[in-house]
Structure formats: C-alpha cells, structure tokens
Amino acid sequence: MNKKQKKVLQRIVIALICIIALEFIDVKGYLEFGLYMIPYLVIGYDILKKAIKGILNRQVFDENFLMAVATIGAIALGEYKEGVAVMLFYQIGELFQSYAVGKSRRNISDLMDIRPDYANIENESGEVEKVAPDEVEIGSIIVVKPGEKIPLDGIIIEGKTTLNTSALTGESLPREVSINDEVMSGCINLNGLIKIKTTKEFGESTVSKILDLVENASSKKSKSENFISKFAKYYTPAVCYGAVALAFLPPVISLLFLNIDANWSEWISRALTFLVISCPCALVISIPLSFFAGIGGASHEGVLVKGSNYLETLAQTKYVVFDKTGTMTQGVFEVTGIHHANIDKDKLLEYAALAESYSTHPISKSLQKAYGKEIDQHRVLDVQEISGHGIIAKVDGQDVAVGNIKLMKKLNISCQQCHSVGTVVHVAINNEYAGHILISDLMKPHAKEAIQALKKIGIKKTIMLTGDIKSVADQVAEELKIDAVYSDLLPSDKVDKVEEILQNKGNKEKVAFVGDGINDAPVLSRADIGIAMGALGSDAAIEAADVVLMDDDPLKIAKAIKISKKCIRIVYENIYFAIGVKVICLILGAIGIANMWMAIFADVGVMVLAVLNAIRALRVSHL
C-alpha cells in the first residue's frame, strides 16, 4: 500500500471502532447525533469536500455527490448508523479499487521495467563513463556488463553473451549473441561483457518505442469505454432526477389526490436508497481497468497493442492475411544456385552483390554474404531502386540490372526461367541477360503451428500475399496449409487485394494483415487491424501497425487474438453484471423492498466483484 492508501485504511479502522463503540452506548437526541458525526466526518470528509468542489465547478453529478446526498439525507432522517455505514463501506470499496488498480499498474510496470537508467559509453581514450541514455549519439561505443540492461539498439563489435529478452518478447529462453549480431535495448546481459556500436538514438530505440506504446495505449479508447463514458454522463443526472421524483411525487399524489398520509420519511428514505444503488462506480472503474489489464498482460507476452480500440477490433478478427518474407519465413536467404549465361558465375555473383550493396533487403544481404568479400561501394554509382522490381546501378561503369522477371520485362530483356523452387534473381549487364541466382528462404519454426492455432480459434480464412513468384508462393502456402495465396504482387496490388477481402467480409468480421517490410506499411494501415513483426520489422511497418509482435513469432498472432477475446469477454461480463444487479436493486429500492444495506451491496459489492473480474485480464500466460 502507498501512503495515501494507508491513511484511508487508518480512517476506516478509526470509524469502524467508533461505530462499534456507539453500539454499547445508550444515548439519544443531539448527543447521539454529535457522537455519530465523529466517525461520519472521519471517514467521509474528503467525499463531502469533493462533492462541494464539484458543485462549485458546475460538475455536480458524480459518485461523490450521490454519496454525499444519500448519507446526509439518511442522517437528516435520523438513520445515523445507516448514513455512516454507507460512507464507511463506500470508502472500503474505493480503497479496494485503488489497491487493485495500483497492483495492476505495478504488475505492468514490473513486466515493462525495461527503461535503462544509464549507458556506459567508451570515449576516445578508452575510458568508460556513465551517461544518460538519451545523451548517447548514433555510432557511439557502449559497454554492457553482466547483469546490466542494454540501453540502446546496436550491433555487437566485441564479446559474446547470453541475453534475457523476456521483458521485450515474452520468450523465457535466453538468446546467445556474439560479434555482428544486432541487439535490442531493454534486454538484460546475463553473463559476458560486450561492446556495442549504437545504431539508433534512445528516442528511436526499441525500449523507448515500447514504453511510448504502452503509456499511450490508454488514450485510444474502445467503443465499450466510449459507451460507458457517455452512459455515465447521462445516467448519473437521470438517476438523481429520478430520486427527486421518487421522494416528492408519491407523497404529493397521496396527499392531494388520494387524501391519505404522505409518509414523507418513507419515500425520502427510498429515494436515498435509490441514489446509493445507482452509483455507477462498477462500470466507470472496471471497464477501463479490464482493457488496461488486457494490454498489460499482452505486453508481458511480447505483444504490444497500441490501444484498447485495437484490442476490441482484434477480438472480432475472422480473416488473417500474411506477407511471406520475414513474416512466415525467417527472411534468412541463402544462395542455393547460380545459373550463368555468357559470364563467369563468380563474376555474375560479384556484379549482383555490388549492385545490391546499398539495399538492406534480406535478398541483398544474402547476395553479399554469398559473395563473401569486402564490398567497395565506390565501384557502384547511380543506384536506382524500383519498388517491387529490383535495382539498376552502374558497376565498374557497366549498367547492371538485378531483380525479378518483372524488371527484365520492364527493360525488354528476354530471360531464362528457373525450374528449381526458390526466389530467382535475374541479372542483366549492359541490357544483355547474364544469368540468374537462386535464393531459398527458411521457414519460421512456428509458422505451420501458427496457421493451425488460428484455425482452432475460429479464423475463417488465412491468406498469403507476396511479391514472390507463383511457384515459391504456392510451395510455402501448401507447406503451411494456408487457404489462399496471391503471388507476383506489387505493394499497391497487396492493398487492392486487402480492399477486395474487406468488401466481401461480413459486417462484424474484421481483417488483420501481418507484415514486416517497409512496403507493407500501406496495407498495414488499410486493414482493419495491422500486425507488425517488431524485431526484424522496419520502422515504417511498426509505425503503421496497430499491434506489434516483439519476437517475430507468428504463433503470437493466435495468442494476441485469444488475449483480446478474453479481455472483451470480461468487459461484457462486467457490463451485464453491473447493470443487471443495479436495475434489479433500483426496482426493489423504488418499491420499498431494498433497504440501505442492500444498496451498499449494489454499489460497493458490485464494484469490488467487477474489479476482481477485471484483474483476470492480466493473467494470459496460460492462453
């Protein structure tokens, strides 16, 4: 408990002791009133203060106003014990709710405790000094000792170690890294001392983006939250006016028209009970808490959801559309064949690697890796990348075109088809076909399992969109048991295909697109819900997406959907339960069956149960 909560607990204990003591004191009249006012003011002075402040600020109708009116009214009717009890139990409920929310926030804070406090930067003289992470520039050398967090994204230039990545990815198994491996900020160095050359500033690093996503997620409200906000805005004034009508209309009708006793105290007592029952705390507190817990639970599993509105959309997903490279496959390409025409195969590979040397695409990296020599980029001029086609450049003064069959057709160069399955990179030198290089991609370990998991949770159709050739795309789709596949697509074609799927789906069915590359950004934005691969994915894809998978594991897609469904189920459980109990108790209160003690349960009891239910959204590891 924090200091504020401990102070409230002390007031509750003091008030409770006073009430118990008053049970054994036989006093009447003003003395009884004065003695009961002691525990009432001890436990309720802050509620009264907030109610008065709300009236002065013309924001009258809230739970503080309802509690103040109900308890003061009960005391005015001589029901001192009930008036103090209502305020006491309300404060107990508020304390419980405060503790529950705080625990939820602490759990999330612990899970996301990845913000580094400092960075050990190595200066030109080789000395190490501690600085704030946001003071470290790109290209700096930082030293990370065993037990420390990696403060910025970078590449290891010295040493090898084991990293704990669980705070980022939810993956419990440590990850082995060594020289030339990329590492993300927020991971914990477990055993070896490593030196890292930073590749991003702190504001652009993985840890900073994660913290920003989690902190800002609550600002993007779901339809359920917006409904509850609007509901409370109109509901509270309505029940206040209803209570006034209940207090005055029946007595006036009885007196003027029925010529019987007005029984003012009975109807005012019913009205006050009506007010206590009507307090909307359970809904106003538990619904945002459910979404907050759901987002926090997902974060612990390495799934970052950018807002509760996206969590709600994710739960309605019925169609999942995938990119291929880097999403269902590892994006780890290997050259498996070189078929040359009128040039030596080593020279063919050299020209292709040089032309692609400025690109960061996995295929370009595989060509450079297969070339195996240091690349002199001074030999390369006038590089032009044609999206969805390939690259044209001058290498050693010669025009070199490297790309797919569409690039060859664009340049009116006839080329040979490759009969082997894989990605085919065609090469032309000075507008003459020089041959092609066969590159194969490795399937992700959980890719097939991910498709099965999606079908098991009720996904209607899985679809793969790729710019790769038909033979490769068909082979991957058949191996993974994907329902439909479209190949040879440009980025704009992917958007068109998603548009087509969106038009043919049901009204309440949502389409998710999963991608990782910069060319996936437009379609990630266009789908109902965009899911990006966070570890290998480009910044543009992560920025455009609504959900980010921090470990690039496609199996987490099904987990994310299951988390969202559980969260939404809890939200609706709380809505139906809270409204249902309140409606029943309001009717009972209006006809005089419900007393003040039932009113306390309808308010505080329902709130406590709803909050307890909401916290269940944090527990997602078993899903």
Q: What would you say about this model in short?
A:
Strand 21 (529-533), helix 18 (539-544) and strand 22 (547-549) form a beta-alpha-beta unit. The chain has 623 residues and is an alpha+beta fold.
Q: What gyration radius follows from the Cα positions, in whole Å?
A: 33 Å
Helix content: 40-55%
Low-confidence stretches: none
Largest beta sheet: what is the strand line-up? Answer: 10-22-21-20-11-18-19
Descriptive overview:
The protein is of the alpha+beta class. Helices cover 51% and strands 18% of the residues. It has 20 helices and 22 strands. The strands form four sheets. It has a seven-stranded mixed sheet with strand order 10-22-21-20-11-18-19, with helices on both faces. Strands 2-1-3-9-4-7 form a six-stranded antiparallel sheet, with no helix packed on it. Strand 16 (423-429) and strand 17 (432-443) form a beta hairpin. Helix 1 (3-23) runs antiparallel to helix 4. The radius of gyration is 33 Å and the shape is elongated. It starts with a helix and ends in an 8-residue tail after the last helix. The mean pLDDT is 83.
